[in-house]
Amino acid sequence: MNVFELRRKVILCTTAAALCLVGLVNAIPIAAQDQDDEVQMGQSVFDQLKAKGEIIESSPLYDQLKPIADAITRAAQPRYNHPFKFYLVHEAHPNAFATPGGNVYVVDSLLYFVKNTDELAGTLCHEVSHTIHHDTVTLMEEEEKIRKREIGATILLGPSRAQFLAMLLLGKLHSLSYSRDVESRADLTGSDVCAATGYNPWGLVWLFQDFKSARTEEVPQLLSDHPNDQNRVNALERHFRRNPSVFKKFNPDPKSATPFVVPKNAPEVFLH
Ligand SMILES: [Zn+2]
Q1: What is the pLDDT of residues 193-218, one digit of tens each?
Q2: Among residues 2, 108, 103, which one has the least CA distance to residue 44?
Q3: Entry pTM
Q4: Which of 84, 87, 146, 157 is most buried per CB count within 10 Å?
Q5: Ligand 1 centroid – CA 186 distance (Å)
């Protein structure tokens, strides 16, 4: 740091630092700033998962995931301006989650949990759709408003806004609670994405139906917010009926699906 930088910093710090920071943040065009926030939020989550040793760097399980991930990326990428990347992670409960910036995390046990390829594809299409709709950022911005009210201007002296949003996201990563409407919207976009990949969009409906009568602790977290939500299934079926040119060719019978087979106790090498 040179003298000028130091002097600038001192001035910044001594003359209403909060106002200066607000000014700087406001000077950045909103769209660019939001996009940058998304990448930074995603990177913070990646760094944290990596630090916890959860990210699987290599495993034969990737051979199973890759064709699905590649097909979803081809279908979904035109709708989002950062590259989608899929990572396997090792966590206690079967789950999948997507973070702003394009990363999609698939818990290894989810691969053992789904009955067929279309259920896995449907789940991942749903998660990718949350990213396309910027749902996580919107949720964290709501959270930010609440927290700002609680702690006042002090946060402006601390980490940047993106870091602050990332911090909120890390705290809530496994308890993100979207409204039914937001979930349903991700279902519908997810089914469009899935149809474009060629995987059967009924996969998500089958997954809902599989766990309709299951106990909450058995249900993957990604479904557990609204586990018995017939409304979501109804909305999907309505969407399929209204768009026969897209969906009519897909068989609604789960017996028509190809079982998803993964090697048992597949070795996993973790990213450090
Ligand atoms: Zn969701």
Answers
A1: 999 999 999 999 998 887 766 656 66
A2: 103
A3: 0.82
A4: 84
A5: 6
